[in-house]
Structure formats: structure tokens, C-alpha cells
Write a structure and sequence with these properties.
It is built from 12 helices and 16 strands. It is of the alpha/beta class and about 450 residues long. The protein is globular.
Length: about 450
């Protein structure tokens, strides 16, 4: 193979991470991003690593699945997670970022790297006879998607995903909304809009009867939703109390103005339901409606969401949107190294391969970028220890049942069990974390002596 540069297609989180890891290995990389030459139905900017849905990377604590993945990536030198840490905003126990600054910083960092060439152009076919990392995500352009289907011999799988609205902070009534984090964990970083039973039931009925936007190019009856990111109107239609046991649950939220609900005499003051808003930027000028991904028409969003106490005069800077996510049947197509079994010089990562969540996309970018560099250097590609969250995740997507394969977020259910059963969940997750980070350090040391392919 005569090649001095690696090609990365797609400038999302996975592509950004992959390009950075390739450059860190001392290899030149061309990173292709089609925006702004060609837009997508979900993106709003031309920046790399734009966060399309939430601005949260999930739980921060390393005894949580997402938090463990964060920590593994920190120890592996992830540019995405280090930037998220630098650009974080208060979010209780979660790692959330100022999304505009986060993406702008990553774009500038990569564009100014001497080994990274950022090209704004659409790639319509997978380059042959080269090491290529495919990270085009769930909104792969139709031409490239068609070529990928020819390459794999398989149709895409798909589901529908949605993003939440963002509200101007000054338009939120602070006499009603109160600052608190659930169970007082971490800084009080969420604005909480309380509802009584009458307000909640009216809100639920309005959601059930609301007009939804037309799905572009697709018929609604063919739509599948990813269960981890259901539109709020879909939750409302699943039952009267579904939202109260989901994103609107009031448990663990205490309004200090009304007294501590944990005290018996104040128990009756607990809200019937609570809508939470998470800080979107460092200055606290913008707030994201937590769990309010939606496909309602924009006029309906404004009408119904202004029924929420505290949001009567809400100003929306971004309405909720819905788009189709596509992914490949990775168990039939990929190795745990994220190489295609049919052509090992082509690698893939991100939501395209069926991992779910920002951090998982960055993790896939790290492994695909690392292995792409190793291929060009004549070294054996690596797989992650199965006891790590990264290893478990990539092991799952490459070995799950192809017939029932669906996107998978990081979770402890896919990690091998401990030698001795631990009943206490928090303690069990802590032991998973300790084993993972220990095995990761041992694995990292083994990479210092790479095996060269003869």
C-alpha cells in the first residue's frame, strides 16, 4: 500500500477524535466534512463536533457507565473529552458543555494542526486501496449511503431521533422555576418548573392532541423511535403517568423556598411533576429542556410548552427537531477493532456503527483513529479489554444478534460479570470501574511494544 495520508470522512465527534489520534501518531490526515457545502437536516452550524441534540455527555461519576467511559477516554488522551472538561458548564452530576464554544474550540484546534488538512467537501464514494475511517454518522449523505450499501451488500437499519428546544434564560420566570439538582447532588444547576396535578394532566392531554411535523421523505407509520430518546409527545401517548416516571419525575427535587420535602410536615408540598432545564452555555443565558426532544410543529411547541409554569413567556432560540438516524448492521460487518471484515483497511465509528451517545462516538473515533494509524505504520490493530467500557461496547456491536441489533449506549449490563457476585449495585459498579481502569492501564503499557506485521 502506497499511502502517506489517512482519510477520515465526517467531522462529527467520532471523526474529530479519529483525526486527532491519527495526527498524534505522527501521520498526516485529511478530514472531510461536507458542511457548509452541503447541509444536513439536523445541524445548525459548520463547526466540527457539533452537538445536535443535548449538550450533556451524561453522568460524570466514574461509577456510572457514561462516567467510566469519560474516565477511560481521559486516560487515553481523548481530545473530545479534554475539551468537554475545559468547556464544561454546571450540570449537577453530569458533564455538560457550552456547545458553541466546545465545537468552535475543536474546529480551531484541528484546523491549525500541521498534520490535519480540513477539507470542506462531500465524499460520495468510499476511497479504495487506502486506509479510510468512515464517521459520517446517522445523517450520511444519500450518495455515500448508496455507496456504503454497495460496499457492505446490506441495507441500512434506521430509527428516528429528535432534539429538544432551547430557551432564553431571561424569559424564564424565576419566581416559579427554582434551582436544584436531584437529591442535592452536585451544584444546583438545573432550573425546575413545578406542576400540580391539574396543570400536568392538561399538559399531557395537549401533547396527545398536538399536531406533529411532516417527516421528510418518510411515512410516519414506518418510523421507529430509539427508546433512549423518545419524543415527549410519544411518552405522553403511552399513558397518563409515563412522563411523571420519566423526564418529569419530581422525586429528589426540593424547592428551598417551600421547605424540605423530605420532612414529613412538608411532604404535601412536593410538585406533582417537574420540567427540568439544563444550562446550555457558560453564561447561563440559554437553557435546554431536558427530555423534551420532539417532532411537534413549531407553533404547537410554543403553544404547549408555554403551558409549563415558569415558561409562559418563554423565548425559543431553537425549536425541537426530528430526523432519521441510520446505522449499519455492525455484528455482520465489523470486527471489535472497528475494521470491516470484508476490507480491513476501512474502519468505521460513531453512531453509524450503532453506538449511542456522544461519549461512545468519541470512544469509537479514538479506537478507529488509533487502528488506522497502526495500519499505516505496519502494526497490528488492537482491540480493547472486554472488562473496559470501551471494550465491552465494541465487543457488543461486533457480536450481538444481527437480527435484533439496535443502537447501544454505554451500560454495565454489557460488561463481563465480576468473579464474585456483589449485591449492592453502587458497590458493584464501583468494582466494575476499578477493574476497568486497572485493566486499561495494563493494556496501555502493552501498547508501548507494538507488534509489527511482517
Amino acid at each position: 500500500m502506497i499511502q502517506d495520508k489517512i482519510i477520515v470522512i465526517g467531522g462529527g465527534l467520532a471523526g474529530t477524535e479519529a483525526a486527532w489520534q491519527i495526527a498524534q501518531a505522527g501521520i498526516a490526515v485529511i478530514l472531510y466534512e461536507m458542511r457548509p457545502v452541503k447541509t444536513s437536516p439536523a445541524h445548525h452550524t459548520e463547526e466540527l463536533a457539533e452537538l445536535v441534540c443535548s449538550n450533556s455527555f451524561g453522568a460524570q461519576n466514574s461509577d456510572r457507565a457514561a462516567g467510566l467511559l469519560h474516565e477511560e477516554l481521559r486516560r487515553l488522551g481523548s481530545i473530545v473529552i479534554s475539551t468537554a472538561d475545559e468547556q464544561s458548564v454546571p450540570a449537577g452530576g453530569a458533564l455538560a458543555v457550552d456547545r458553541a464554544v466546545f465545537s468552535s474550540h475543536l474546529t480551531s484546534t484541528l484546523a491549525n494542526h500541521p498534520l490535519i488538512e480540513l477539507k470542506r467537501a462531500e465524499i460520495t464514494a468510499i476511497p479504495q486501496d487506502q486506509v479510510v475511517v468512515l464517521t459520517t454518522g446517522p445523517l450520511t449523505s444519500p450518495q455515500l449511503a448508496s455507496d456504503l450499501q454497495k460496499f457492505t451488500g446490506m441495507e441500512y437499519m434506521s430509527f428516528f431521533d429528535a432534539a429538544s428546544p432551547i430557551i432564553v434564560g431571561e424569559s424564564i420566570d424565576r419566581d416559579i422555576a427554582f434551582l436544584a439538582s436531584r437529591y442535592d447532588k452536585g451544584e444546583a444547576a438545573y432550573l425546575n418548573c413545578p406542576m400540580n396535578q391539574e396543570q400536568y394532566l392538561q399538559f399531557q392531554q395537549e401533547l396527545c392532541n398536538a399536531e406533529q411535523a411532516e417527516l421528510k421523505d418518510f411515512e410516519r407509520e414506518n418510523a421507529k423511535f430509539f427508546e433512549g430518546c423518545l419524543p415527549i409527545e410519544e411518552l405522553a401517548q403511552r399513558g397518563e403517568d409515563t412522563m411523571r416516571y420519566g423526564p418529569l419525575k419530581p422525586v429528589g427535587l426540593f424547592d428551598s423556598r417551600l421547605g424540605d420535602f423530605r420532612v414529613p410536615e412538608n411532604k404535601g408540598k412536593r410538585p406533582y411533576a417537574v420540567v427540568q432545564l439544563r444550562q446550555e452555555d457558560k453564561a447561563g443565558q440559554l437553557w435546554n429542556m431536558v427530555g423534551f426532544q420532539t417532532n411537534l410543529k413549531w407553533g404547537e411547541q410554543k403553544r404547549i410548552f408555554r403551558l409549563i409554569p415558569g415558561l409562559e413567556n418563554a423565548e425559543f432560540v431553537r425549536m425541537g427537531v426530528m430526523h432519521r438516524n441510520t446505522f449499519i448492521n455492525s455484528p455482520q460487518l465489523l470486527e471489535p477493532s472497528l475494521q470491516f471484515t470484508s476490507k480491513n483497511t476501512v474502519l468505521a465509528a460513531g453512531q453509524l456503527v450503532g453506538t449511542e451517545g456522544y461519549t461512545a462516538a468519541a470512544a469509537g473515533g479514538w479506537l478507529a483513529g488509533t487502528n488506522a494509524a497502526r495500519l499505516l505504520l505496519g502494526q497490528e490493530p488492537v482491540t480493547m479489554p472486554e472488562t473496559t467500557m470501551m471494550g465491552a461496547l465494541f465487543g457488543f456491536i461486533s457480536s450481538a444478534s444481527p437480527k435484533h441489533f439496535q443502537p447501544m449506549p454505554p451500560n454495565f449490563g454489557i460488561i463481563p460479570q465480576l468473579p464474585t457476585r456483589v449485591k449492592n449495585k453502587r458497590e458493584r459498579y464501583g468494582q466494575y470501574r476499578d477493574r476497568s481502569l486497572s485493566d486499561l492501564e495494563t493494556w496501555k503499557q502493552s501498547l508501548l511494544k507494538p507488534v509489527v506485521t511482517l
